[in-house]
Amino acid sequence: xxxxxxxxxxxxxxxxxxxxxxAASGFTFSRYAMSWSxxxxxxxxxxxxxxxxxxxxxxxFDSVKGRFTISRDNHNNTVYLQMDSLKPEDTAVxxxxxxxxxTADWGQxxxxxxxx
Length: 116
Fold this sequence. Notes:
This protein has strands spanning 3-7, 10-12, 18-25, 34-39, 46-51, 58-60, 68-73, 78-83, 92-99, 104-106, 110-114. It is mainly β and 116 residues long.
């Protein structure tokens, strides 16, 4: 059973930084690509970053390129999202996800609020 638990969200001022973590269990973490998504109230979920199983390949949503960095630690079954130069429009619930059984599994998410 895939389990994904996010942490690290909070309130930050515009221009600030946060580092999100996602602890994974219930599957062989090192074999699967991982991603981070976000969902703001009244909006669709959007995938903001993805990383290959080895960590050698990453991709980003255009609006976060150059500001967000996804990484993973396959020894500790954890994926990270470093978020710098945060903007108010980055405010959302951020979740990590993967596709193990054919459909996407997402964690409960952690709230990120960017406001002065």
